[in-house]
Amino acid sequence: MNKDLINLISGMMAGFSKGQKMIADYIINHYDKAAFMTASKLGNTVGVSESTVVRFASEVGYEGYPQLQRALQELIRNRLTAVQRMEVTNDQIGGGDVLAKVLGSDIENIRRTLEESSSDNFNNAVDALCAARTIYILGIRSSSALSRFLYFYFNHIFDDVRIINTNSSSEMFEQILRIGKEDVFIGITFPRYSQRTFNGAKFAMDNGAKVIAITDSPQSPIAEISDTVLLARSDMASFVDSLVAPLSLINALIVAVGLRKKNEISATFSRLEQIWDEYNVYEKIEGTHDIDVTKI
């Protein structure tokens, strides 16, 4: 329904009451602002009562106003420009407690991610990764931070992990040229969705590789061409992308894979500890002693 919501409201306009028409007209022309308004604020802005706004939500097919508001937020997820996102930031936070507002939003993103997560999808992703010959990871723009974090740990766990570093589509295809049916492609993309990440996932799918999407919504373009979709909320409290829930999901994926391959990675990390000590990779703190984990 999200993709057709504006058309749906426009098509129902003739049957609305005067107050509902005022609400509909505002949503159609200012959906970017309406998506973050409470029922009370939307009513005050339009000049109708809060109860009229609630009845309007029911009229267009939602259980209540929160469901309509969520649908509007889904609708604009990939439509807002940077300027519009800045305006949303000012409307939502303004001169308020920025720290509390942003951290509260991130907490809500993690809570909703947990509620909406599929254990079956998560386990399917772990199975595919553990059976993969080569793992390719692609995340562009702000998602590149997530892809590099995932690559850092997977590189310690798997024999052949490749992060796709690219400034152009041609470079990307050159780096995944040999991807095949024994491989896994992980595409990480959040609004505004990357066309290049979608194209890479499509190429991987066409060549028989399993595609794992880490994204925010079943309506995300990459979700349609993926074998497994892992959802993490990135609803913005500002013009800055919220990556807290996606990073938490990636942490869970790393831990699950690590537990599955604990014997192999124990040997790897033992070797790494020797290298780190030999070449002074980490600063040693005087007065500390090695901990005997067998006694913990």
UniProtKB/TrEMBL annotation:
<dbReference type="Pfam" id="PF01418">
    <property type="entry name" value="HTH_6"/>
</dbReference>
<dbReference type="InterPro" id="IPR047640">
    <property type="entry name" value="RpiR-like"/>
</dbReference>
<dbReference type="Pfam" id="PF01380">
    <property type="entry name" value="SIS"/>
</dbReference>
<dbReference type="GO" id="GO:0003677">
    <property type="term" value="F:DNA binding"/>
</dbReference>
<dbReference type="GO" id="GO:1901135">
    <property type="term" value="P:carbohydrate derivative metabolic process"/>
</dbReference>
<dbReference type="GO" id="GO:0003700">
    <property type="term" value="F:DNA-binding transcription factor activity"/>
</dbReference>
<keyword id="KW-0805">Transcription regulation</keyword>
<dbReference type="InterPro" id="IPR009057">
    <property type="entry name" value="Homeodomain-like_sf"/>
</dbReference>
<dbReference type="InterPro" id="IPR046348">
    <property type="entry name" value="SIS_dom_sf"/>
</dbReference>
<dbReference type="InterPro" id="IPR001347">
    <property type="entry name" value="SIS_dom"/>
</dbReference>
<feature type="domain" description="SIS">
    <location>
        <begin position="125"/>
        <end position="264"/>
    </location>
</feature>
<feature type="domain" description="HTH rpiR-type">
    <location>
        <begin position="3"/>
        <end position="79"/>
    </location>
</feature>
<dbReference type="InterPro" id="IPR000281">
    <property type="entry name" value="HTH_RpiR"/>
</dbReference>
<keyword id="KW-0804">Transcription</keyword>
<protein>
    <submittedName>
        <fullName>Transcriptional regulator, RpiR family</fullName>
    </submittedName>
</protein>
<dbReference type="InterPro" id="IPR035472">
    <property type="entry name" value="RpiR-like_SIS"/>
</dbReference>
<dbReference type="GO" id="GO:0097367">
    <property type="term" value="F:carbohydrate derivative binding"/>
</dbReference>
<dbReference type="InterPro" id="IPR036388">
    <property type="entry name" value="WH-like_DNA-bd_sf"/>
</dbReference>
<keyword id="KW-0238">DNA-binding</keyword>
